[in-house]
Known about the structure:
This protein has helices at residues 5-13, 20-23, 53-66, 82-91, 106-111, 124-129, 159-164, 174-188, 203-209, 211-217, 238-249, 262-270, 283-290, 330-340, 343-351, 360-363, 399-409, 413-433; strands at 41-47, 71-77, 98-100, 115-116, 138-139, 142-143, 149-151, 153-158, 194-196, 225-226, 231-232, 274-280, 297-300, 313-314, 316-317, 321-324, 356-357, 383-384. It is an alpha/beta fold. The strands form 6 sheets. A 5-stranded mixed sheet has the order 2-1-3-16-4. Strands 9-12-8-13 form a 4-stranded mixed sheet. Helix 3 links the parallel strand 1 and strand 2. Helix 9 (203-209) crosses helix 17 and helix 11 runs parallel beside helix 17 (399-409). It starts with a helix and ends in a 23-residue tail after the last helix. The model is unreliable at 1-36 (pLDDT under 50).
Amino acid sequence: MKISKKFFMSAICLMLSGSLAACGSPTSTDQGAEAGSNDKTKITYWTGDRHDSEFVKETIDTFNKTNKDNIEVELVIKGDDFDQALDMSFQTSEPPDVIRVKENTIQTFYKKGFLAPIDEFLTDEMKAKFPAMEDLNSFEGKRYSLPNYGTTMRLIYNKELFAKAGIEQPPTTLDELVETAKKITEVGKASGAYGFAQNFKNPSSALGRSARVIAEVSGYGGFGYDFKTARYDFSGFKPIMEAFKQIKDDGSMLPGVESLDIDPLRAQFAEGKIGMYLSFSAEAGVYQSQFPAKIDWAAAPVPSIDGQFNGASGFLGGQWLAISSESEHKEAAWKFLTYMYDESILQQYQEKGFGISMVPSVSAVAAKPEVKGIDGFLPNQYDGVWPVYPTVPVQGMKSDDAFFKYILSGGDLDSIIDDLNTRYNAALDAAIASGEVRAEPMAEFNPLDLAGQYAK
């Protein structure tokens, strides 16, 4: 897949005229909502996001009260079990009508047949307004989602605990990360504060917020895939997992992380009980409204393995809402999407600090969020968009679960990595043979070339 650097620059810098409301939408009415009918057309929207939940709830409430088509949207927030819950909903024939999709889920949902193409609803003006990225918004010539925002990834840290421990700067290497966590725990443990935390109730979520980006800035694919060779190779994760295990063994990790979800982690951080963790730019909005921070905090570039930046910190996103292939009310679902993608709402989304707009006409007019800590999340010379890696149905324990088990219980990490490489590449070969995925070596691929796309 080729990602247009011009598009991403324009998403930050350019101005396109018009608004989604002016682009037009289907005029036919959905079944159960004919003109003059008092019957409501009820649809459900499922999301795993909680950082923007209050804003989305308020926006949906307004839509329910003001739309002229007798459509009523029910918001369902599933949290970190979102993917599993969605799978089950399709198995039980009770899927939602509208689905929140992300850069690391839309491929899987598409392959499983969960998503309906939206081309029949799109005008040429809308296609121009919302540029699509192949394998992120569109597949095999059909569009399934429109972009809204992107997120950067950073180290979030408690400035007060850093000062108390005599630490002047955030860590830039894994060794510094381990040492910083230890020092914070030494001065904070008596009051219940620890140096580091991860939301290991869901290992995929925890390591996707931490190990992934450390690997990326160090020059390794964040999901273990080597784009240059078109093979899976998790060897780059070895020093990262060793560092995380050391933090756990040192007692510098918040107790109970095995069952810690992201919102309880955020609540603990807001109360001053966590020195640092890694996550997305959405955290700025979280500590503004969802969990008002009682501490002085900031965000910094993530540490690399050895202090050298050999890649790019993944700028993530490019999708937001999609329509379920099983929805019986696709036109009603589209009218809801039309409302949510209105320029005024997308502008508020950025200005309230929930994400950095990837829609050119919105980014051109939206003000910088007046949210504490947002400056540390703004795109810099290390941020860049990685290509889409091939997702494969691997047999046995997934990489995140295997690494989490190692962090807790130890073991032979080299053998664990060898086993992951063997199983993931076997799954990749099978998927290529069946035609489910395409994976070709990118001989000229250099992760350094991805960095700085947002700083020029």
